[in-house]
Design goal:
about 50% helix; Pdz3 Domain; about 425 residues; 13 helices; five-stranded antiparallel beta sheet; single chain; alpha+beta
Length: about 425
């Protein structure tokens, strides 16, 4: 994994970022003026450049981080982090828009329509992904102070977005945009579905780099181990799989379950011999929970009697294993799954029976795969007093919606709004009017 690819030093941001941006803006304006003259487009570009200058000159230098030097933990580095997840998210957006634009040209749809649609879906997709995560993990954000709560909600520098939230948000934007521009909604949905899947495939690689969306412990040959700390991390920051395995006691040789008596206690079911758990003198049936007090220390509170006193066991994190136990690389499973679905729907598209079939089929197939994938993921608890995670419950609804679309498109009279009449493929691909 690689949460942070590199840091742009504060000194570079302060000395070179703004001048470089201004030079690039001048070059872009000169090219625009030479090709198209000084029209409204050039004026619009100036406003964009001014906004960018404000961001580069005043915002970016103030959102940097201070972390320990990977080569010398005693030193501190300051700068703007370039996240691996953010880079893959950008590549996913470019790939998705490119694939949708290619299909749009084949179907006689103006690429500008797709670009406008992509922008709306991008913004609302991010918002939807964050809202879904906040609702799902509300206890992490709720505080007595409204300002603190809002700050936690809008701070996405440490991750915290959900694919299904992005899907719901982007689809709402697509429906509104298509309605306003008088585009055939289901036909456009069929057109962009493979593009959404290629974006998901690349985005999941970003999840792997970030360490989120991880799987459960396994001994398969493809299993991966995550390091204890990310590169360019604060002293107390741990990677998500490692952090989870510390909470559950897996890294010290314990098998536990959530204590039925409530709270954040866990009941010890099994103790491996010669493990750190045995060294802590933990007994079967004891209750334990990790205490988050001192950075760099692993502190465990242990109770032998539910009503009795507790004792504290602690050790430096350096004495713990340097990597997590092997886990399923569920992020890569999901990436491969989305890529295969993208290929299948891309080549199936010319043989669709009616509008909505490709989109519905994509919802069904992805919902099935995601439901099964949740069985080996280890980052979400069950909901509504069941073993089903939020993603599995959402998958059930998506499957029903997708199945309904496929059946509806098959039962109605064959109709495909695309390609448009001006498409060069209209004579070879469009359905017969009969």
């Amino acid at each position: 994994m690689r949460q942070t690819l590199f840091l742009i030093p504060d000194e570079w941001l302060a000395s070179f970022a703004l001048p470089l941006w201004l030079v690039l803006c001048v070059i872009a304006l000169l090219i625009q003026a030479r090709r198209f003259g000084w029209g409204k487009e050039a004026v619009g570009m100036i406003w964009v450049f001014v906004f960018g200058a404000i961001v580069v000159g005043f915002v970016l230098p103030r959102i940097g981080i201070n972390v320990s030097d990977p080569t010398d933990p005693s030193k501190t580095l300051a700068g703007l982090p370039i996240r691996g997840f953010g880079l893959m998210f950008l590549l996913a957006t470019v790939a998705g828009v490119g694939l949708a634009t290619r299909r749009a040209r084949q179907m006689g749809v103006e690429p500008d329509e797709i670009l406008g649609l992509a922008f709306a879906m991008f913004i609302t997709g991010i918002i939807g992904a964050r809202v879904y995560y906040v609702v799902q993990y509300w206890e992490q954000f709720q505080t007595d102070d409204l300002v603190t709560t809002v700050t936690r909600i809008v701070n996405t520098t440490q991750g915290g977005i959900v694919v299904y939230g992005a899907l719901i948000g982007s689809l709402l934007a697509a429906v509104v945009t298509c309605w306003r521009r008088r585009l055939p909604i289901l036909a456009i949905a069929d057109l962009i579905m493979p593009a959404m899947l290629i974006g998901l495939s690349i985005g999941r690689i970003g999840c792997f780099m970030n360490g989120c969306c991880y799987g459960g412990v396994c001994d398969w040959p493809v299993a991966v181990q995550f390091p204890s700390r990310p590169v360019y991390a604060d002293a107390g920051q741990l990677t998500p799989p490692y952090d989870k395995q510390l909470d559950t006691g897996q890294l010290i040789g314990l098998t536990t379950r959530v204590d039925v008596r409530g709270g954040d206690w866990r009941e010890v079911l099994k103790i491996e011999g010669q493990s750190l758990g045995e060294r802590a003198e933990i007994q079967l049936g004891d209750r334990m929970r990790r205490v988050r007090i001192a950075p760099g220390l692993y502190q465990l509170e242990i109770k032998s009697d539910a009503q009795g006193p507790s004792r504290l066991f602690e050790m430096p994190l350096l004495e713990l294993p340097p990597r997590s136990n092997p886990v399923h690389p569920t992020q890569l499973y999901s990436s491969i799954n989305a890529l295969l679905l993208c290929f299948f729907l891309w080549f199936y598209y010319p043989f669709r029976y009616g509008d909505g079939e490709v989109f519905g089929m994509g919802l069904c197939l992805y919902a099935i795969a995601r439901f099964l994938l949740e069985l080996i993921r280890d980052d979400e608890p069950g909901q509504l007093n069941t073993e089903l995670t939020t993603a599995q419950l959402t998958s059930l609804m998506m499957f029903i919606l997708g199945t309904g679309l496929v059946i509806w498109s098959r039962l109605r009279r064959p109709f495909r709004a695309l390609p448009l009449e001006k498409s060069p493929l209209s004579e070879t691909v469009s359905p017969s009017p009969n």
